[in-house]
Design goal:
The complex is a heterodimer of chains A (311) and B (485). Chain A is an alpha/beta fold and 311 residues long. The radius of gyration of chain A is 20 Å and the shape is globular. The N terminus of chain A is likely disordered. Chain B is of the alpha+beta class and 485 residues long. Chain B has three domains: 179 residues, Beta-Lactamase, CATH 3.30.450.20; 91 residues; 140 residues, Histidine kinase-like ATPase, C-terminal domain (Heat Shock Protein 90), CATH 3.30.565. Chain B is rod-shaped and about 175 Å long. Chain B starts with a helix and ends in a 5-residue tail after the last strand. The mean pLDDT of chain B is 86. Classes of the chains: A alpha/beta (311), B alpha+beta (485). Chains A and B meet through strand 8 and helix 8 of A and helix 3 of B.
Chain lengths: 311, 485
């Protein structure tokens, strides 16, 4: 069970509390999501009577909301470790998660580099832990094109083409290609004939594979994970270039959060690699663990944002 | 065609029935199939319309925010994940074009890249673009290009007065063909089952209806050549027209046979009557000179001077003449001689008379005499009849065989019958049985039955003979009591 697998169908069926499962998944999808969100909220209401506020954990499209079962298990694990309710808040775009942190509606969030640097700059959040991928707190950005495109060797060759961005607040899927274009002396706003947002890294792969976009850049972690679970999809694309490495999308804590809860959450996450249940969850997340944060890992991103005038 | 009309009912009835059944079946199935074809076609259009409406409702906000990916997800879902069975529209492609007829997004981006002018995609889309530009952009419409493999369903993407573009759903023209063939297959299957039940039934029924007619026809065709065998009563036992036809045939056949018998008898009677007249005439003609000759011989014998040699010759002539007289006398049967009435004892006397002969052959004699009083019939000729018939029977019977005799009065007629086993007469022999000199036996001159016949005839009665089924000859005689009829 990987965090980015395109198996929402199965999960939806498993997550449904009562057995009436007749087929129309597409129509039922919204209903299922509603039920799931209600389920997530249910314990909150119970604990609310005891005056214990739940810890709210924001999830951004770094990890897709299709993985509801995984998130539910993770939440249960954290509740057990923290001995208090934990609430996961799912949002489709980084913008929404950023807003929730700024408005202190959530206490912790797993965000991309761009939102983190932005929030840190705004003093709205601080680094809590960094996920380790293959034991290292790094990832890169991949430039992909359809596998039928044998000629493209760099981003600059995609001039006048259709390009897919992941999210306007994405590092690997937005900031990186625009920064690279700017460094090459191009105007990122007019370089491509047409751009659009897919609101998720996995969908970048989809749009390029289907031929909707002529190219796109995305999180290497997503592509690698997809390549292992859905090779028939990634095989339809070709990696043209890999960027320099950036710090892995971190988990942040909002500013003003009390120290005890912050440390408790940090310890819970850092301790995941030490017990069996935690390791099982990490395997499903395709991560090897969490490490204490080091802001310096995000210097490159900070520099790019400066260059693009976003900071 | 004529040979079909000339066919036997055995084949014609089932054939017509089969043709009618098949025609009915084809008409019913054909109507249902044509109906379902139209309905399926209509379904596809309705579904296209519904799909177009639901897609454009979702597409409008996505296009309004230039959310290409969302728009792509909306239009690719029905193609990537068609809901099996529930929707007859198996869309091949779904295309969204802007107001300048350029591709905004296609469910198959490789064949219709974003921002390509619709006219540049292929000639079919170019023609489609012409049609769309002619539309007022307010209502949806199905477009059927003559040489295309696809149906196009065009729905404007608009809300209020804002018109963002056009949705084009294309599906193969014969998208309903698999379902249609499925329905046709079902219809054919059901039709075959019905035919498989009805045709053998019809064949049996037709054959069963024709069978009595066929048998009747065969029998009637035989009538001229021979008497046909009886109809099989099992073949048709009902009381409808056919049953009555059977009855009428049987009745007609019976009448025909009776008439034939009568004719035969009449011919025989006529012949025998002519023979009798002839015999009597000749006998009279012979009797007169014969009497003269016998008288002359008597006179001659009175003379003593005839030498013995001549006497011997005269005696020889005399014996010959007497024999002629006896024979002629036998031919001249006369039953009208006065005689006393027939008494029961007369009949018993006959039994006594033949008993030595029956003992000799060790015959079993069945004797049944129902006469217990005098009968007003002349005793002598009747006795003559009995003796003749019984002697014949005893002669014909095989050793250790049977002779049966029965006499009584029924319907004011003296009825008697004589039955014997043993020698069986042929039809030819029976036909000439009562003629003189028929010589059926090894002995006798063959005049016995002739005489019997003449006596019966003169008493106004009837004599008949027939072969019984169990190889016995059966003579019957009936004589009206109270004088010659």
């Amino acid at each position: 069970m990987y965090p980015f697998g395109n198996n929402c169908k199965k999960n939806n069926i498993n997550a449904l509390p009562h057995g009436n499962l007749h087929i129309n998944l597409i129509n039922n999808f919204n209903k299922l999501r509603l039920i799931l969100i209600l389920l997530l909220f249910l314990p909150t209401l119970v604990w609310a009577e005891d005056e214990i506020q739940p810890l709210r954990f924001g999830i951004t499209p770094v990890i897709t909301h299709d993985q509801n079962e995984l998130i539910a298990d993770w939440r249960e694990y954290l509740q057990k470790k923290l001995k208090r309710p934990v609430e996961f808040v799912l949002r489709d775009s980084y913008r929404e998660t950023i807003d929730l942190i700024k408005r202190k509606k959530i206490d912790f969030a797993w965000v991309s580099d761009y939102p983190y640097v932005y929030l840190e700059k705004m003093r709205a959040a601080k680094l809590l832990v960094i996920p380790l991928y293959h034991g290292r707190p790094y990832y890169a950005s991949y430039l992909i094109v359809p596998s039928s495109d044998r000629n493209t060797k760099s981003l600059l060759q995609l001039k006048g083409k259709i390009f897919a961005y992941a999210d306007p607040y994405s590092n690997s899927g937005y900031l990186v290609p625009r920064y690279q274009l700017q460094q090459a002396g191009e105007d990122p706003s007019h370089f491509f004939r047409k751009t659009f947002y897919t609101w998720g890294h996995e969908k970048i792969v989809n749009s390029v594979a289907q031929g909707l976009a002529d190219g796109g850049m995305l999180d290497s972690f997503v592509w690698d994970t997809l390549a292992s679970i859905q090779p028939e999809l990634t095989n339809q694309t070709r990696i043209v270039a890999k960027s320099v490495e950036f710090g892995f999308p971190p988990i942040v804590v909002r500013s003003g959060m009390n120290t005890a809860d912050t440390i408790a959450m940090q310890n819970a996450l850092l301790g995941m690699a030490k017990d069996q249940e935690g390791r099982a969850l990490l395997t499903r997340l395709n991560l090897s663990g969490f490490a204490p944060g080091n802001e310096k890992l995000y210097e490159v991103v900070r520099k790019m944002m400066h260059a693009m005038g976003d900071l | 065609m004529k040979w079909i009309l000339d066919l036997s009912f055995r084949y014609k009835l089932p054939l017509w029935g089969a043709i009618l059944i098949i025609m009915t079946q084809l008409t019913v199935s054909g109507t249902l199939i044509i109906n379902s074809y139209d309905e399926l076609k209509e379904d596809v259009l309705i579904s296209s319309e519904a799909m177009g409406y639901s897609l454009t409702t979702n597409l409008f906000p996505a296009l309004l925010h230039d959310d290409i990916w969302r728009a792509y997800e909306i239009i690719s879902t029905p193609i990537i994940r068609p809901v099996p069975g529930s929707n007859p529209v198996n869309a091949k492609n779904i295309l969204v074009v802007d107001n300048e007829l350029r591709v905004i997004v296609s469910a198959q981006p490789k064949s219709a890249p974003m921002l390509t002018a619709m006219r540049d995609l292929n000639p079919e889309y170019a023609e489609l673009a012409n049609r769309i530009s002619q539309m007022n952009g307010r209502s949806s419409q199905d477009i059927n290009l003559p040489n295309s493999k696809y149906y196009y369903y065009v729905t404007p993407i608009s809300s209020g007065s804002t018109h963002l573009g056009t949705l084009i759903i294309s599906h193969p023209k014969y998208v309903f063909w698999p379902r249609f063939t499925h329905i046709v297959g079902h219809a054919l299957w059901a039709g075959s089952i019905i035919l498989a039940i009805l045709l053998p039934f019809n064949w049996y029924w037709g054959w069963r209806m024709a069978l009595p007619l066929v048998q009747l026809t065969e029998r009637m065709g035989e009538i001229k050549r021979k008497w046909p065998a009886d109809l099989d009563p099992e073949v048709y036992a009902h009381r409808d027209e056919l049953g009555r036809l059977f009855e009428a045939y049987t009745r007609m056949l019976g009448d025909l046979m009776d008439m034939h018998e009568l004719e035969k008898k009449m011919v025989q009677s006529d012949r025998l009557a002519a023979l009798g007249q002839l015999a009597a005439g000749i006998a009279h003609e012979i009797n007169n000179p014969l009497s003269g000759m016998l008288t002359a011989i008597d006179t001659l014998k009175c003379y003593n001077e005839i030498d013995p040699h001549t006497m011997k010759t005269v005696a020889l002539i005399e014996r010959g003449l007497i024999q002629i007289k006896d024979t002629v006398g036998t031919l001249l049967v006369d039953a009208k001689i006065n005689s006393r009435k027939l008494a029961p004892q007369d009949i018993e006397d006959v039994l006594t008379l033949i008993t030595p002969l029956t003992r000799k052959k060790a015959l079993h004699v069945g004797w049944h005499n129902c006469i217990d009083d005098e009968v007003p019939l002349p005793a002598t000729p009747v006795r003559q009849i009995l003796i003749n018939l019984l002697l014949n029977a005893v002669h014909a019977a095989s050793p250790l065989g049977t002779v049966a005799f029965d006499i009584g009065i029924t319907n004011n007629q003296l009825q008697l019958s004589v039955v014997n086993d043993g020698k069986i007469l042929s039809d030819e022999q029976i036909a000439h049985l009562f003629e003189p000199f028929s010589r059926l036996g090894e002995s006798g001159h063959g005049l016995g039955l002739w005489v019997t016949y003449q006596i019966v005839l003169q008493l106004g009665g009837n004599i008949g003979v027939k072969r019984e089924l169990n190889n016995r000859m059966h003579f019957t005689v009936s004589i009206p009591i109270g004088g010659v009829a």
